[in-house]
Amino acid sequence: MIYLSKFVLTSALFSYFSAVLAVDFGVGFHLSLDYGVATVYFPNKTIANIAKITGGASYRQFMRDAYTLKQDRPSSSGALPKQSSSKPLSSTGLACSHLKCAYTQFLDDWVPCWRGKQDSFQSAIPMLKALKTATDSYLETTISTAQVAFPFKTSQKLRDQLSAAAHSFLPGIRVTGSPAGALAIFAYDVVGDVEDDDKVLVSVEYTKAALTGHLLYLADGVVKIKRVLHSLEFGADALHQAASVSAIEETMKASLREMIHMPIKADHGPPIEHISNVIVIGEAAENKRLNEVLKSVIGEQFNHFASATILDHQA
User: How confident is residue 158, by pLDDT bands cut at 50, 70 and 90?
Assistant: First the structure.
């Protein structure tokens, strides 16, 4: 393992949970591209990963659509970022051709014609039910609330639809618009006193399916998303299977450099020149190649190296 200065490498799911309940615990569900994770946060600051559940083909397609259908996400240039080649999944989970039908141009281009767009959020309901069942079993009680986070910011419409669809079994559900990596800043007390000076942080969610990175600006306890990088080509599986791993790694480095280039204009005081913390979450957060890429791209901004803290996504 290559240690990265001030890195908090944590592949446990976000636990910036919903308001602590009367029974003194908070519950969070993290919907990643190919799986979901349930966690419980206790007042003594311990975190229990309850279950990691693999999603089916419809869930995986929904999660890919949840990003590509989002139209107001920020980018380094202010324009919409380039899409990764996230081809739709067939019922067997295999890639199929991405058709743009002349008769369906009024639909979002990224929705496969053979699937249709109607009620795609329903594909996440079985996952939420499974995570709730696992949590109920662990806590030996019936939960009625949980905070749900995605790897990336999602549309308000999708969040409202998902909340309404899950209300019957989770009446207190809160689907947050903040990405899981941003929530982890508070869950793991990465930055300490939020009243300190403004900070710039990097969060990376790394899984077998994708790399999702955010450049985050923290001021007065509020996190703002400055830039986003989301790519299926950089996922751990795609990287492992690539014909030229070194070429993909160089492309990944270039994309990360574009995402994190400094300085960042601050709300208070002079522009911020350095990144204060990096948070890595996801099932592949311990990936050696990712660690080396991050060290190459970000490591030079730190004066020394310290050991990393790693919490696994496996329940």
Answer: very high
Structure tokens that stand for 235 in this block: 């996922």
The dihedral through the CA atoms of 245, 250, 256, 260 has a sign that is positive
What CATH fold (topology level) applies to the domain 7-11+192-301? Nucleotidyltransferase; domain 5 (3.30.420)
- Rounded Cα distance between 235 and 57, Å, is 17
- The residue with tokens 């955010």 is 214
Q: What are the distances in angstroms from CA 151 to CA 36, 115, 166, 196, 304?
A: 11, 23, 19, 27, 30
pLDDT (tens digit per residue) in 240-270: 999 899 999 999 999 999 999 999 999 888 9
> pLDDT tens digit string along 285-308?
999 999 899 988 887 665 444 334
DSSP 23-88: TS-EEEEEE-SSEEEEEEE-TTS-EEEEEEEE--HHHHHHHHHHHHT------SSSSPPPPP--PP
Compute the CA torsion angle 288, 290, 294, 299 (nearest 10 deg): 0
Which pair of structure tokens corresponds to residue 203?
Answer: 């969060």
Strand partners, 172: none
Phi, psi of 300 (to 5 degrees): -70, -10
The H-or-E segment that residue 201 falls in is: strand 199-206
Tell me if 174 sits within 8 A of 17, measured CB to CB: no
- pLDDT, one tens digit per residue, over 86-131 is 443 332 232 222 333 333 333 343 444 334 444 688 999 999 999 9
Structure tokens at 204: 């990376």
**Neighbour order of strands in the sheet with 211-219:** 7-9, 277-281, 199-206, 211-219, 222-231
* CA separation for the pair 33, 207 (Å, rounded): 8
